[in-house]
Every structure is written in C-alpha cells, then in structure tokens.
Write a structure and sequence with these properties.
Length: 404
C-alpha cells in the first residue's frame, strides 16, 4: 500500500552522531599569492581611473537596463496574482499576531487537525496542495508564513523575521484552530520541516505527531553538507542570469507593493536558471529542476534572506532548532525522495532519524525534494499510514484522538 516506498525504523537505543568540529584548512601565509589590487585601492592611486570605473559602470548599467527592457521585457501580466492579502481582500486570510496571513482550511471542523508548513523560507503553500485529499479524514490548515507567499509583508525584519518569531506565529496558528489545549499533527516540507521540528521540541504538548519531509538541517552538524555545497562561488551563468533578470525587474509594470520586484527577481532568476548552473540541482532527479513540482504564487525574498542570515563564519548553522527534540514522546515520520543527494534519505538517516525517540524514515522512489507533488500517491499513502498508526497507538493507550 506504499506504492513502492521504502520504510525503515530507528533502531532502539540508537544515539545521535557525535558532533565534531570543522576541519577546514587554513591558508599558509608564506605560500599565499599576493592579493590582486581591489578597485578601491586602484581608485586611491588615481582619481581619473576611479572616475573612469564609475562612468563605465554607469554606462554598462544603462545599456543593460535598455536591452533588458527592449529584448526581454517581462510579460505584462508578470505580477498577476502578486497582490497579498493586504491588497486583495478576496483571498482567504486570518489575523495572527498583528499580521494578515493567507490561509485556508479544508475538511470537517470536527476531524483531527493537521497544520501544513511550507518551505523556503519565503515560499508559499501552493506546491503542497496535493495534500488536500487528506481532508476526507482530517481537517487541513494551509497558510503562508509572515512575509512569504501571499501573506502580509513585514517591515521590521530584525524583530519579526526570526526563527523565534516564526515559532511563535505557528503556536498562534495552532491556538487559533485547536484552542488552548488541543493537539495537532504537523506536516512540514523542507524549511517547514525544520520549523515543525523546532516547534514540537518547544511545545511538545501541542503536537500529536509530526511528518517532516526532507527538513534541511536540525543541528549544526547536519547543516555542514548543505552550507559547504552552497559555499562554492556561483557560476558565471547564474550571476549573469540574476543580473539580467534584475534589470528586467526594473521594467515590471505596476507592482502591488514595494517588495514585489525583489520577490519576482528571486523566483524568476533562480528557478529560471539553466540546469547546469541551478544552485540546488542535487535536490532533483537527474539533477534537473524540470523534474520538480514547483508551482508558486509568490516568493518572499526579505523573509528568505532574514532567516538565511543565521549562516555562521565556520560554514555551519546553529539556530537551536533541535532544542527539546530528544524528549518529544510521540511518533515522527521522516519522508525523503530517492533522488535527492544533498538532504535526501542518506542525510535524514545519518543526521535526523537518531534525534527522535519514536521515528521512522520512508523513502519515495524516483522522486526528488518536491516528492509531495512528484508522486502524491506514494506520499499520501505514507502520510495516511502514519496518521493511522498514531490513531491506533492513541486508542491502544486508552485515549481518544486529541488532535482536534
């Protein structure tokens, strides 16, 4: 009944892998080549040279701006559907902690509650709509996090676009739908899996179970493979793509808000990059983004950059996401795609499966990071089997399904 998905349980008593320090080599100062002269140092040698750089740069920018508008202008409807719930009041929305969030609810109000968390950070829940059939047995909540998707943009990132702020927002969403004591099942994809794991560690009494679909990293050690893969200088093809798309963004007509140009640039510039230079190509089957399921309404560039600011100089990330996770007493399902060679099944097995007290890993064959949309049949089968196991375990322990 799992459509060929591969299932494995965490071994009893299995411990998390020991954390080790980074072994990055230091350059030998005696062997180092002299650094090339920077533009600023050259400017100090002669004002004429510096002025020439400024003029040449301005002329190049003007030429690119004109060419981008004349040869490759954005379509007139490029920002169609970009208005957030602030400007488009016909969109379904809820008010949470002073922010208006794009959200919808599916299923019977009396059914066990499932809260779905999208990835990114900065993405939206459109790619997770293949989970909608779960509404035949559960009440499904889907929402765009603050500053992301079609939710309200945030003006104070230092205060409102932090991991703690997103955890507080999720807690408020849970309370909005489940009341002050009800428990929910969490389904989180990628960054949403990281957010869900952080939440269950800090609010274990509010979570009946969790389904984490390829969370990127929950510990400092788990972050290293991802950060090291992203630390390489971007290829020229990607830099040119972003530069060209940036000048195209200046020609966008009537953006609905001040964030729209950057949101369009981030989504169009990255997802439209050629296969050979796509930065996260290892996420997908045949390292080809064309095999992925990536429908979007809108990307939240400011929210994405704010969360990614947790990068540390020693090429790791430590945001305290694993706090309380080893003590979480209820079931956790880790889902991974067979094709993802960066944060797929091997990564989840090595770094994340041992963290949880009661966890299993299910691998969906012939699917990449967007397995929910690539193979919804296998994904839904795994999710339903997990939810049924949790319900059965709860009944056997003499309690009802508290995920209300």
């Amino acid at each position: 009944g799992m459509s060929g998905a591969l299932r494995e349980r965490k071994k009893p008593g299995q411990a998390a892998p020991p954390l080790t320090s980074s072994n990055s080599a230091l350059n030998d100062p005696d062997a180092a080549e002299p650094a090339p002269a920077s533009p600023s140092s050259l400017c100090r040698r002669g004002l004429h040279f510096c002025g020439g750089l400024v003029v040449a740069g301005a002329l190049a920018a003007a030429v690119l701006w004109g060419l981008a508008g004349a040869l490759d202008p954005p379509p007139p409807d490029a920002l169609a559907g970009y208005a957030t719930v602030v400007d488009n009041r016909s969109l379904p929305a809820i008010e949470i902690l002073g922010h208006r969030l794009h959200a919808e609810v599916l299923g019977d109000p009396s059914a066990p509650l499932v809260v779905v968390l999208h990835g990114g950070p900065g993405d939206d829940y459109r790619a997770l709509l293949p989970l909608a059939p779960l509404a035949d047995t559960h009440r499904i909540v889907l929402y765009d996090q603050r500053g992301a998707g079609l939710s309200q943009r945030v003006k104070a990132p230092a205060e409102d676009l932090t991991i703690d702020a997103y955890i507080a927002e999720l807690d408020a969403v849970v309370r909005h739908y489940a009341g002050s004591e009800g428990r929910v099942h969490l389904i989180g994809h990628s960054w949403g899996g990281m957010l869900g794991a952080a939440y269950l560690g800090r609010h274990p009494d509010r979570v009946a179970s969790a389904i984490l679909v390829e969370p990127g990293f929950l510990t400092r050690e788990a972050s290293r493979p991802f950060v090291e893969a992203m630390a390489a200088p971007p290829p020229f093809g990607l830099v040119w793509r972003l530069l060209w798309t940036g000048f195209r963004a200046l020609h966008l007509q009537l953006p609905p808000d001040s964030h729209a140009r950057f949101d369009w640039l981030a989504l169009t510039g990255i997802l439209g990059a050629p296969k050979a230079v796509f930065p996260l190509r290892r996420y997908f089957c045949n390292e080809d983004v064309a095999t992925a399921h990536l429908p979007h309404w809108r990307f939240g560039s400011a929210a994405s950059m704010a969360i990614q600011s947790y990068m540390l100089p020693d090429q790791s990330i430590d945001a305290g996401l694993d706090r309380g996770i080893p003590e979480f007493p209820r079931p956790v399902l880790l889902l991974a795609g067979e094709c993802n060679t960066l944060i797929g099944s091997a990564h989840q097995r090595q770094y994340h499966l041992p963290l949880f007290r009661d966890a299993e890993l299910v691998v969906v064959p012939r699917a990449g990071h967007t397995l929910i949309g690539e193979d919804p049949e296998a994904t839904l089968a795994a999710v339903r089997a997990h939810l049924a196991r949790v319900a059965g375990k709860t009944r056997a322990e003499g309690g009802g399904d508290h995920a209300k």
